[in-house]
Amino acid sequence: MHEVKMPSEYEISQIFEIKKWESEAPSVLSRALDSVTLPFSWLINKVIPESAIEGVLDFSSSAAEWLTDTKDILRDSGMSSIDDLKSYDLKKSDDLANEVHNWAIAFASAEGGTTGATGILGMAVDIPAIIVLALRTIHKIGICYGFEVKTKEDKDFVLFILSASGANSVEEKVAALTTLRAIQNTIAKQTWNKIAENAAKNSFGRDALIISIKNLAKQLGINITKRKALQAIPVVGAVVGASVNAWYIKEVGWAARREFQKRWLLENNKIRFKPEFK
Asked: What would the pLDDT profile of 174-196 be if each residue is shown by its tens digit?
C-alpha cells in the first residue's frame, strides 16, 4: 500500500466538504413535494412511463460520451493532456469543474424554460434532454480531474454518481455511495491496461455491484417526476421547467464534483480507502 501523503490546507478543506456531502440526506424540498405533486405525478407516469426512461438511459449514456469534448478543458487548464490533470492541482481542477457546472446549470434552465412552456407535452423532449445533460455534466466534470470514461468501471462510476445525486432516500444514497467506493477500489487495484484487457471477463461486471439500468430508471422516474410535476401546468410550466432543471443539474454537478474530488485524492494518496474497501 502506498504511504499517505500529507494533504494541503486546501485539500483538507475539500475532504471535509466531501464527507459533509456524503452524509447529507436527499433534498428536503424534494421530499416535501410528494403530497403536493402526487396528482400530476400520476399523469406524467402515464405519459412518460418507467420503461421509456429506461430506454432514455440506455441511449443517454452513449450520447453523453459522444457529446463530451475535451478541447476547452485542455485550453483552460494549460495541460498537454487530460491525464496530466490527475496529479496536477486539486484547486485547478475544482475551478475547471466550477465553470463546467455553472454552464450546465444555465443550459438546463434555458432548456427547461423552453420545453416547460408547452406543459406536459414538452416533457417528452425535456426529460430525455435533461438526462443526457446530467450524464454529460458528470463526464465533463470527470475530465476536469483527469478522468475520462474509458472502461466499464468508468461507465459504472458515472451511472452511480447519477444514482447518488437522484436518490429518493438515505438508503438509496448509501447504496450508491457504497458501490462507488467498490468501483474506486477495483480501479485502484488494477492498472488501466489491465482493466481494459479484462473488461469483458472481469467478475466485477457480473456481481451485484454493477448498475442495473432498470433500477436506476425506476429511481430517476420517481425523482424527476416529483420535481417536474408542476411543469404539467402550461401557465407556470416555463418557470417550473427552468427552475427544476437548474436545481436538478446543480445537484448532479455537486455529486460529480465531490466524487471525482475523492477519486483524485485517493489516486494521489492524500486519503486512504476505508478498511472495508482495502
From this structure: 877 877 887 777 776 654 445 44
- DSSP secondary structure, 179-240, as one string: HHHHHHHHHHTS-HHHHHHHTTT-GGGGSTTS--HHHHHHHHHHHHHHHHGGGGSHHHHHHH
- pTM for the full predicted model: 0.77
Question: If DSSP codes are grouped into helix, strand and coil, which group holds residue 6?
Answer: coil
Residue 158 to residues 112, 191, 258: CA-CA distances in angstroms?
Answer: 23, 19, 13
Residue 80: strand, helix, or coil: coil
Check residue 120 and report its DSSP letter.
G
CB 1 within 8 A of CB 189: no
Task: Compute the distance between CA of residue 193 and CA of residue 9 in angstroms, rounded to an integer.
Answer: 34
Rounded to the nearest angstrom, the gap between the alpha carbon of residue 206 and the centroid of all alpha carbons in its chain is 22
Handedness of CA 264, 268, 273, 278 (dihedral sign): positive
How far apart are the C-alpha atoms of 71 and 63, rounded to whole Å? 18
Contact of 181 with 40, CB cutoff 8 Å: no
Residues 6+ apart with CB under 8 A from 270: 4, 5, 6, 7, 11, 15
Domain map (residue ranges) of the chain: 27-195+204-277
Torsion (CA) 6, 11, 17, 23 in degrees, nearest 10: -30
Tens of pLDDT, residue by residue over 104-113, are: 999 988 877 6
